[in-house]
Amino acid sequence: MNLNQAFKIAAKSIAAKKGRSALTMLGVIIGLAAVIILVSYAQGQNQQMRAYYESLGTNVINIEASSWNSQNISDALYNYCMELDEYVLGVTPNIQMYNQTVVKYGAKTLDNYQTSWEESPQVVMGNQQFALCNNLTVAKGRDLSYLDIQKYSQVCVLGSKMASMLFNYADPIGKTITINGTPFEVVGVFEEKDPNNYSGVDRYILVPYTMTRLLNSSTSWSSFVAKAKDSASTTRAITLLDGFLKGLIGENGYYYVQTPNQWQEQGEAQDKLQQRFLGGIAAISLAVGGIGIMNIMLVTVTERTREIGIRKAIGAERRSIIAQFLIEACMICGIGGIFGIAAGYIGTLIVGKLSFNMILWPSVGVTVGAFFISVALGVIFGLYPAIKASGLQPVVALRAE
């Protein structure tokens, strides 16, 4: 018997028992769909994390430094970074206002305690290099200037989403908004940076850091952001800044110097581990589906014992019997795999929309791997019934009813 005949016989056998075959495939369908959806979910989380770090920009260095003896770290750090112009392009305080913030323009009011997170205003304070260090670009108007910082100017630059929420389609340049009752003139608007609103950078309201006493009831800060020229300069700058802060602060405070790339690498390693973990959980349902395949194939062998006896009596070899039942098991799993992949794609689209608000597609590798896994299930779990069928003695098999 050639392979073409074996496939025809397998197809007829599956078609003759449509209900049983469909129920047998169901285990494979559910298992493969679960694998695809869970692995794609983990990949979606990884994409979201990468988008967040990309919104932060490259070659960014985050610095936390505080002294317990009221030492002026800001000026010392700024001056040192200016000396490192071979490696560092700029440095800025990075102060975020976390207390209640009420922003008003005309009849429009945004309150970060009352508004949803997606529309919550985020007041940040920095110097004239804040945009450079955070990879922001001014789309309208101008950026903060050195004189704005020195003269305590009540000016601000809005993120694109914040400008849209406050002014709709009107030009905000030259208009005055109030932050907790204090008036600020809008001098610029940043280009859209984060359309998916993961980091909230488009909801920024940037004001001079010298306004911290007025808005934040504080004159001290400990968070800074520096911008290096390239990746090689980033590594060198981190080493130099770490040594400088160690000498400046010593045991009289705390500090750390890191780049978001370090967090990204750690996050990607965790995501890979999560993908394996979720894939392993889903593989359990595949194993259950495979046991169902073995069970049905054993039933099929029992039902077709007389047919096997006749074929062996007229000279069929063991390998042809094994091939026939393996092909049938693989066809059941293969058909189930196709439906499982389709269900996995639909489930992934739904999960991507609900969880990440994005169109999420399973990777080609996961799809191809899922199909081959389904066929492999047919081989693994169909092998024992096939061997059992090939081992039947013709005389015993012909006596079977």
Automatic annotation (TrEMBL):
Gene Ontology MF annotations: transmembrane transporter activity
Major localization class: membrane
Transmembrane segments: 21-42, 277-301, 321-347, 359-384
ABC3 transporter permease C-terminal domain boundaries: 281-394
Annotated source species: Lawsonibacter hominis
Sorted UniProt keywords: Cell membrane, Membrane, Transmembrane, Transmembrane helix
Any one annotated GO CC term: plasma membrane
Source species taxonomy: Bacteria, Bacillati, Bacillota, Clostridia, Eubacteriales
Subcellular location: Cell membrane
Annotated ranges, domain MacB-like periplasmic core: 21-238
Membrane topology designation: Multi-pass membrane protein
Residues annotated as signal peptide: none
Protein's name according to its UniProt entry: ABC transporter permease
Listed InterPro entries: ABC3_permease_C, MacB_PCD, Macrolide_Exporter_MacB
